[in-house]
Amino acid sequence: MERGGERRHRLLPYDEQFRLFTLPTTRKGTAKVVPGCGVKINHLYYWAEALRNPEVEGTQIEVRFDPYDAGVAYAYVGHQWVTCYSEHYSVFHGRSERELMLASEELRRRHGQHATHFTMTAAKLAQFLASVEAEEVWLRQRLADHEAHNLRQMKRDDARPPSLPAVNAEAKPSVATVHQIADLRDSPLETYGEF
Fold first, then answer.
1. What DSSP line would sit under 141-171, residue for residue?
2. Terminus-to-terminus CA distance in the chain, angstroms?
3. I need a surface site. Which of 29, 122, 133, 166 has the fewest CB within 10 A?
4. What are the CA-CA distances from residue 159 to residues 4, 187, 190, 195 (Å)?
């Protein structure tokens, strides 16, 4: 840089166009526009209104997908990049490609034990992901309940006075036993905080 300078004309701005060109694509780099469904990328259909054009339907177009958001993909239609949304956007939005791959493997593993032929669809994957989310919420709640139970148990154990010596109602307690009981009852309990 000392000899040649900064060469600002060689710098690439980190803008939306740069981000789109650095996103991954399919193996062929293109996808076919299926009428009424959109483009299929990694077993998921993505749709945008620009794909409704009769000149575009049935043709191969350039596509890109975001590996960190399975709810969104991009298609090059009419000399511009168009944002396409997944058919199950609410479930796939914010999920990474890796998450979908792990969920697909788990779903195939579960059905592979019981069915001889299983076809993976976006609807089945979305339903499975939604149920896993519910299971995660349930597990988090179960963990919170377990921690609260342990905390209540500790508070209960702390609130009990130390075990008192056994006193036989028929036998006369000794003077030392009476003094021990009186000392235990009069001693303040240590408070660790509000519950």
1. HHHHHHHHHHHHHHHHHHHSPPPPPP--SSS
2. 63
3. 166
4. 77, 12, 9, 12
Residue 23 main-chain phi, psi, to 5 deg: -75, 150
Question: Looking at residue 182, what DSSP letter applies?
Answer: H
Q: Distance of alpha carbon 87 from its chain centroid, rounded?
A: 19
| CA 149 from centroid of its chain's CA atoms | 26
How far apart CA 134 and CA 132 sit, in angstroms, is: 5
Tell me which residue has tokens 């300078």: 5
Say if CB 34 and CB 25 are below 8 A apart: no
DSSP codes of every residue in 84-115: EEETTHHHHTT--HHHHHHHHHHHHHHHHTT-
Give the number of C-alpha atoms closer than 13 A to the C-alpha of residue 13, restricted to the C-beta side: 3
pLDDT tens digits, residue range 120-167? 788 888 888 778 665 765 566 767 777 877 776 675 565 555 544 444
